[in-house]
């Protein structure tokens, strides 16, 4: 560290120490240790209780307090006591009595992101993983935008904790460094951090700044994408160091990766720190990537980015007004309530809008970006004005069929068919393959209900190896299969009264 950096940090810590309130002091007898839940840079982390609250308690590896260990402990306490952000693990207090020094933080119940990513039994859709990446980026951006700048220096998946709402929080500030804006840092004796995530300039003992955290985040982003350990084939540190620093080796990005995500990862781990994006730019890029992950339909992505780029859930009224404007049609307040346009809006609301999960929002219905993406997979593609059949027309045409039941799982479909005669059927969304449908039918008096998939291909439908133009055509024209299937007869469709009620008294007539 050069003399100016030393003066900067000394002044900052003097300022911290001048704050007489300091971090909240916790007495040793107030803390109860339970099971070990993790290991940080300077200590083990236990689940515990403090003042009747479940907490995480960090105990230093060493309690003999040589000067370096004591300085590192005091530094982490001071850093954490000054940082407040929803995506940074909340510091609650510390015990600073020699021999009993601990740090107490909020308990983040789902553990660290590394463990979740590498557990194949846990379902983590790409959309959710990208939201988690954005959470981490928001936390690191808060550190980087502080003055002095906080450089975390150990950004890795095991230092990203996950709460009960799958929100990510950064932890472990044991290696963090402070710097003035536009200044550089440099290690003198040993590179600090975790080698797998360490920026090349840090490993080579060159000057570095907050862009080293950006490199680390690029590796984390790759890990979030692939759910694999980075550089798992390397075993020797010197060979690994040469591969990353000299040969510029990086983990392989899968070919099926979203192009927007690929570009961001490659920018983050660029060999030149000056070409890496700031976390402000990373957050902006992730806003677009999250939409790409939630919505595969090209026009659907364009619509959501134009109307609600940073939103994951929007009020129904705002959504339908924006969609009508996009489609250049009358909105809910402009069209006649007996018109086909108004019926389109009612049908879309019935299949897309949900009651908000949070109470007291003052909003009756909301549209979630994920559900919007799935609905487009079932009924899309979404067309720009003048390109083809508007998506709301397509949805209305299907919901008008009494045999269409929308979102049911296999058990519920069988329950609705129970007690109906042989040949009775319903059509629903596939519960395992978005974009596909399932025909559930009673095929014998004693046998179970049979479920057969209807797959989509280039906007058309494949049922029993025959290509159809629509679900309606399948019901009208399909014959019985060679494996004992019964012919579909529209009169045998089991009615779905929820959707049927939308069509009562249309133009003064009961459609059914």
From TrEMBL:
EC code(s) of this entry: 2.7.11.1
GO molecular function: ATP binding; protein serine/threonine kinase activity; protein tyrosine kinase activity
Major subcellular location class: membrane
InterPro entries for this protein: Kinase-like_dom_sf (IPR011009), Prot_kinase_dom (IPR000719), Protein_kinase_ATP_BS (IPR017441), Ser-Thr/Tyr_kinase_cat_dom (IPR001245), Ser/Thr_kinase_AS (IPR008271), Ser/Thr_Kinases-Pseudokinases (IPR051681), SH2 (IPR000980), SH2_dom_sf (IPR036860)
Residues annotated as signal peptide: none
TM regions (residue ranges): none
Catalyzed reactions per annotation: L-threonyl-[protein] + ATP = O-phospho-L-threonyl-[protein] + ADP + H(+); L-seryl-[protein] + ATP = O-phospho-L-seryl-[protein] + ADP + H(+)
Domain SH2 residue range list: 403-475
Protein kinase domain ranges (all copies): 31-291
Subcellular location: Membrane
Leading EC class: transferase
Keywords: ATP-binding, Kinase, Membrane, Nucleotide-binding, Serine/threonine-protein kinase, SH2 domain, Transferase, Tyrosine-protein kinase
Family: Belongs to the protein kinase superfamily. TKL Ser/Thr protein kinase family. SH2 domain-containing protein kinase subfamily.
Function: Required for proper chemotaxis and phagocytosis; proper spatiotemporal control of F-actin levels in chemotaxing cells. Negative regulator of the PI3K (phosphatidylinositol 3 kinase) pathway. Predominantly phosphorylates serines and threonines and tyrosines at a lower level.
Designated name of the protein: non-specific serine/threonine protein kinase
Organism whose genome encodes this protein: Cavenderia fasciculata (Slime mold)
Highest classification ranks of the organism: Eukaryota, Amoebozoa, Evosea, Eumycetozoa, Dictyostelia
């Amino acid at each position: 560290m050069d003399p100016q950096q030393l003066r900067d940090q000394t002044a900052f810590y003097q300022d911290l120490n001048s704050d007489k309130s300091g971090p909240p002091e916790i007495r040793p007898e107030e803390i109860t240790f339970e099971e070990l839940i993790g290991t940080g840079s300077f200590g083990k982390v236990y689940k515990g209780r403090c003042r009747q609250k479940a907490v995480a308690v960090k105990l230093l590896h060493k309690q003999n307090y040589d000067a370096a260990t004591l300085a590192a402990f005091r530094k982490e306490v001071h850093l954490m006591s000054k940082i407040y952000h929803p995506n940074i693990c909340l510091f609650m207090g510390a015990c600073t009595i020699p021999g009993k020094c601990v740090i107490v933080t909020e308990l983040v119940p789902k553990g660290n992101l590394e463990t979740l990513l590498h557990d194949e039994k846990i379902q983590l859709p790409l959309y959710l993983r990208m939201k988690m990446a954005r959470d981490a980026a928001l936390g690191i951006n808060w550190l980087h935008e502080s003055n002095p700048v906080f450089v975390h220096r150990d950004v890795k998946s095991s230092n990203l904790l996950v709460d009960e709402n799958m929100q990510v929080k950064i932890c472990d500030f044991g290696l963090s460094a402070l710097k003035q804006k536009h200044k550089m840092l440099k290690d003198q004796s040993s590179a600090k951090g975790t080698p797998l995530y360490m920026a090349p300039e840090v490993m080579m003992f060159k000057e570095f700044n907050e862009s080293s955290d950006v490199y680390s985040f690029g590796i984390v982003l790759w890990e979030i994408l692939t759910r694999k350990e980075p550089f798992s084939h390397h075993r020797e540190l010197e060979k690994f160091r040469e591969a990353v620093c000299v040969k510029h080796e990086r983990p392989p990005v899968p070919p099926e990766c979203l192009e927007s995500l690929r570009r961001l990862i490659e920018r983050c781990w660029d060999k030149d720190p000056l070409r890496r994006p700031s976390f402000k730019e990373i957050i902006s890029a992730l806003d677009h990537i999250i939409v790409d992950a939630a919505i595969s339909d090209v026009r659907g992505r364009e619509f959501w980015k134009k109307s609600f780029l940073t939103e994951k859930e929007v009020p129904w009224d705002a959504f339908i007004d924006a969609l009508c404007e996009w489609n250049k049609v009358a909105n809910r307040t402009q069209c006649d309530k007996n018109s086909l346009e108004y019926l389109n809006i009612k049908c879309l609301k019935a299949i897309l809008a949900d009651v908000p999960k949070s109470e007291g929002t003052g909003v009756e219905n909301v549209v979630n970006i994920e559900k919007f993406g799935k609905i487009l997979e079932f009924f899309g593609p979404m067309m720009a004005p003048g390109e083809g059949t508007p998506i709301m027309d397509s949805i209305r045409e299907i919901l008008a069929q009494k045999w269409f039941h929308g979102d049911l799982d296999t058990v519920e479909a069988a329950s609705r068919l129970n007690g109906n005669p042989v040949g009775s059927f319903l059509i629903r969304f596939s519960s395992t393959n978005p974009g596909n449908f399932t025909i559930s039918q009673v095929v014998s008096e004693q046998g179970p209900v049979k479920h057969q998939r209807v797959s989509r291909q280039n906007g058309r439908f494949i049922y029993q190896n025959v290509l159809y133009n629509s679900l309606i055509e399948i019901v009208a024209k399909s014959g019985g299969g060679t494996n004992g299937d019964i012919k579909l007869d529209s009169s045998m469709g089991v009615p779905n009264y929820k959707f049927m009620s939308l069509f009562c008294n249309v133009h003064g007539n009961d459609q059914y």
